[in-house]
Write a structure and sequence with these properties.
By secondary structure, this protein is mainly alpha-helical. It has one domain. It is 77% helix and 0% strand. The longest helix is centred in the middle third of the chain and has 31 residues. The chain is globular, with a radius of gyration of 17 Å.
Length: 254
C-alpha cells in the first residue's frame, strides 16, 4: 500500500509539473491541457501564473512538503475550472465527446488531488479544516469512479474513432477499444463499491502507464512540436498516478 501511494504521488507530481511547464512554454491556455480551458480569462499572465503554481505545487508534493495543503489547493483549482469554466459550455460537455473528456479529465485529477490530501496527517488544532478535507477525500472516490464510468461509456460511443488510435502493430483494434471501455466501467464500479477496489485501481494505473509507453510516447516522438500529444501523454501519466493513489486507500476485498 505504501509503495502504491509513493509511486502514485510521484507520477501525479510529474504530470502536474508537466502541465505547468506547458503553460509556461506556450504562454496560453491550451485546449487539451488541464485544468484551464482556452476561453478562460487571464491570457498570457494567467497562463504563466497557473504554470508557476503547478510547478511549485508538484515540487512540494514530490518533496512531501505540506502535501495536504498543496494537494487540496490543486484539487480546488482543478475543480473550480470544471465548475466555472468547462460547465459554461454544459451543452457541449453533454453532447460532444471531446468537450466531455476535457471537462472530465480535470475533474478526475481534482478528485485524485483531494484523495492525496486525505492521505497526509493534519494539524489536530485545525478541526474544521480536517473535517472538510476528510469529507472531500471520501467524496472524491465517487467522483473519480464516476469519471471512469463515463470514460468507459465513451469507448463504446466513439469506438470507431478510438480504434484508429490503437497502434498499427496491435491486432483487433476495435476489440481493444471495447475491452478498455468495459475495463473503465468495471474499475469505476469496483472503486465506488469498494469491491476488489485496490486490485481494480492498480490495474487501471498499470493500464494508463502502459498507454504512456505504448501509445502516447510514440505519438509524441512522431510529432515533437504537437502540444496536444504532449498534453495527452502527461494526462495519462497523471491518471496513472491518480489510480495508484486511489488504490493505496482502498481495501482489496469487499
Amino acid at each position: 500500500m505504501l509503495f502504491l501511494r509513493h509511486i502514485g504521488r510521484i507520477l501525479f507530481a510529474i504530470g502536474i509539473a508537466a502541465f505547468g511547464a506547458q503553460y509556461l512554454l506556450h504562454g496560453q491556455y491550451l485546449g487539451g491541457l488541464p485544468p484551464v480551458p482556452p476561453w478562460a480569462p487571464g491570457g498570457t499572465i494567467g497562463a504563466y501564473l497557473v504554470g508557476v503554481f503547478l510547478i511549485v505545487a508538484a515540487i512540494a508534493i514530490a518533496a512531501q512538503w505540506n502535501v495536504r495543503l498543496v494537494a487540496a489547493l490543486i484539487g480546488a483549482l482543478f475543480l473550480s475550472c470544471v465548475l466555472f469554466f468547462h460547465l459554461q459550455h454544459l451543452s457541449d460537455v453533454i453532447h460532444k465527446g471531446n468537450d466531455r473528456t476535457r471537462a472530465l479529465e480535470p475533474l478526475a485529477l481534482a478528485a485524485a488531488a483531494f484523495v492525496l490530501a486525505g492521505t497526509f496527517p493534519t494539524n489536530p488544532k485545525s478541526s474544521a479544516w480536517h473535517s472538510i478535507l476528510e469529507i472531500s477525500s471520501r467524496l472524491a472516490r465517487f467522483v473519480f469512479a464516476f469519471t471512469l464510468i463515463i470514460f468507459g461509456w465513451q469507448h463504446f460511443e466513439y469506438a470507431a474513432y478510438l480504434a484508429t488510435l490503437v497502434p498499427a502493430w496491435l491486432p483487433a483494434h476495435l476489440a481493444w477499444i471495447y475491452f478498455t471501455g468495459a475495463g473503465f466501467i468495471a474499475a469505476g464500479a469496483s472503486i465506488a463499491l469498494k469491491i476488489l477496489g485496490r486490485f481494480a485501481a492498480t490495474l487501471l494505473g498499470l493500464m494508463f502507464f502502459l498507454w504512456v509507453v505504448i501509445l502516447h510516447a510514440p505519438r509524441v516522438y512522431a510529432s515533437l512540436h504537437n502540444g496536444d500529444e504532449w498534453s495527452s501523454l502527461f494526462v495519462a501519466l497523471a491518471m496513472a498516478g491518480a489510480s495508484f493513489l486511489l488504490a493505496s486507500t482502498l481495501p482489496n476485498r469487499a
